[in-house]
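User: two proteins, same treatment. go.

Assistant:
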Amino acid sequence: MSDGENSAVRMKLRVVLSHYQAAPILAAWQARLPAIEASLDLGRTRTTLGLSADGVTLPDGRQLSWASLAGVVDAPNKCFTLADDGDLYEIRTFSEATNWVRTLFPTRTAPTALVSGLTMHRIEGIDPLEDTARKIRTVRPMGQVLDTATGLGYTAIYAARTAEHVSTVEVDPVALKIARLNPWSDELFDNPRITQYIGDAFDVIAEMDDSSFSCVIHDPPAFALAGHLYSTDFYHELYRVLRGRGRVFHYVGDPKSKTVSRTWQGVIRRLHDAGFSQIRPQPQAFGIVAYK
């Protein structure tokens, strides 16, 4: 490999860690091992890392100090990215567009996003990937698919595995900046069958043509953060852009929760008011499927 190619590899190396990846590396050094096979991308891949008194030697020649790795281990609810200056920084950003603080929150598999203190995926007894898979299985996306809330992009990525094309809408540009740093979101930006739209889903969908989609996956933020995406007017728009016999999955939340149960009742009533004739609860996915 030429010097130029070596430089390109070094520029491309992305390091994103949580305590799940940092703790085994630190334990290996404490056991005086000279090297360890570990992950530098939140568990997606593994690579061999050299260990020494100076720290961890990365494949591009840079080093991570033991002090910085210990800091990651001591922050179990955070993900960190290695910046060009050699320091690790928490993946956390305030959005001026929404006034929401977004954080990448680690799990044993793919991370979720923490938005104003609320996780965007289920993580108790389940991980974000299985949470996404359950939503997708309720509607079996085919043809043209609309995803109303991009977030980290897992819904769009999973839907694109069977759909002809996925249009995904995100209100907050900061969400996509967070996704860019998340190794599990790479396909959101690399898959040509996914098109991204920036804007409030209410406004973006209003500009879309009638009968454009065979399937809609509506996984909005909590009602407290985006109540208009639970309104009859918005459901009318979902009905309008769906083709005949099209279906929408609407994530609502834990049906066993007393607070959320009231939201379920309101969602079902307003979906009926918007014209949806068949409405079927999907408790395993914490949502509802409605048919046009």
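Protein 2:
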Amino acid sequence: MKQTYLNLILLIERLHRRFLDVIKAELDRLKIEDINNVQTLILYNIGTENLTIGELTVRGYYLGSNVSYNIKKLVENEYLIQERSSHDKRSFKIKLGQKGLSLIEKIDALYQKNCEQLNGLGLGDSDMQAVTKQLKQLENFWTSSIGNPMAI
């Protein structure tokens, strides 16, 4: 069981990196060079909402990335619009600009195509739900283990 557990941990990490590679390949195919794969995921997680950087950070896990730096680059490259919050003048709200909205439409089309391809391989919605349920159980286990090192 220990080796299986360790293999699973490594697989999760590889899957995340491979997924980022899929996003990068799509950006390359679209000839988009002013944004990277992590920044693209940030845009996708913002969607049509108006968020603070703190809200965005809580929502996504941007391992190895500086969210503030990425937000700055996304604003500079006109994917995001940044405005002072009307309620708290110390914080900023961010939302997608037209360029960001256009890109997430393209990424959403990629996700749809991926789902169709997975379905064609025999990995349907119920399979994905089962994997998701198990991964959430693992996430809950790790979350509970943080406060109790003996649980590990």
